[in-house]
Amino acid sequence: MSEKMSSLPTKVGVIGCGMVSATYLKNSFNFKAFDIVAVADQRIDAAQARAEEFSIAKACSVEELLADPEIEIVINLTPHSAHGPVALSVLEAGKSVYNEKPMAVHLEEGRQMLELAQEKGLQVGCGPDTFFGGAWQTARQLIDQGKIGQPVAASACLMAFRAPSSNDEIIGTTSGEYVNFYRTNFFDFGVTWSFDRGPYYLNALIHLLGPIRRVTGSAKNTWGEQEPFKDLVKTPTHFAGVMDFESGTVGTLLISSDIHSTSLPHIEVYGTGGSLRCIDPNNFGGAIHLRQSARDDFVEVDCTYGYNQNSRGVGVADMAAATQYQRPLRASGEMGYHVIEVVHALHRASVEGQHIELTSTCLQPKPLPLGLADWEIND
């Protein structure tokens, strides 16, 4: 066991007081590893409202939060296009940063984050942290115990219909230091389901199977091919991809906002001795089903781990513990960067008509220990 550097909770600030901040703030009271002591937003009234709602001591501007010497970690809950610039400003201020997904829109921003953190002796963490959930920890246990034999293949299916409308043209303010802080167009590059919900699926797969080596696939801009959406939809919205994992497992990935939901499973893993059906990776808990070679059907498996409720923030708790005990993060910046490189590779593979060899890798997150109580995190 590593020696803990401090017995006090890590002091944390939040930048971005939109919808998702409510879940982080509510859950933060359950974690002993960190305390949220300040919230900030470009709209000071938004920060003040969140501070009042959750009894947070300090509501302030982004600049004031970054200048606060008490704060060690900043949770970056800004829109996608601001993740990179805001995270870099946090690191420049000498604080570690935990980004909501995606880590960044542009690969160069992600590389700069990791390099700057290493230079300054800081940490970069990245959501989503749903793979800490009981369903995913149970699925990992089954794979690690050989219940499906040697993993051969995996499939992931993310289909949620999202047609463009005139409301998607609302951009919001672009003034001030953080340009595009409130950018809302779903059909810009860096949004759509590939960047927005894709990380849930990719984090789950990396948690179960490890990092990815190579990507190929085809993409289609369905709405951008027809009026009146040609100028609005600026990026592909349907992806059919293939991923070669470093372990040798072959994964298929379908991401689309052009198709109405079907009954296809969200994620399945197939092995030489059976198959495993998992839940929607946007969730922490749910029913896991196992079919072994001696059976003709899937049977539900008892969940043996905690964190079966909405536990967003557990990645921050793990980051605080990892920093204090000087161990690797589970929801690491390296995994966050690896995920966005996969998403970029899906775009590139279709345009270039070839496999894309990834330049990044990451550690497969270490499983949580069995018997860990909800809202606790191990050293």
What topology emerges from the helices and strands here?
Elements: E1 10-15, H1 19-28, E2 34-40, H2 44-54, E3 58-60, H3 62-67, E4 73-76, H4 80-92, E5 96-99, H5 107-120, E6 124-126, H6 134-144, E7 151-159, H7 192-196, H8 198-209, E8 212-220, E9 238-245, E10 250-256, E11 267-271, E12 274-278, E13 288-292, E14 299-301, H9 314-325, H10 333-352, E15 356-357
Parallel strand pairs: 1-2, 1-4, 2-3, 4-5, 5-6, 7-10
Antiparallel strand pairs: 7-11, 8-9, 8-15, 9-10, 11-12, 12-13, 13-14
Helix pairs in contact: 4-5, 5-10, 6-8, 8-10
How does this structure look, described?
This protein has a domain at 132-305 and 333-357: Dihydrodipicolinate Reductase, domain 2 (2-Layer Sandwich), CATH 3.30.360. Helix 8 (198-209) packs across helix 10 (333-352). Residues 170-183 have low confidence and may be disordered. It is built from ten helices and 15 strands. The protein is of the alpha/beta class. The strands form two sheets. The protein has a nine-stranded mixed β-sheet, covered by helices on one side.
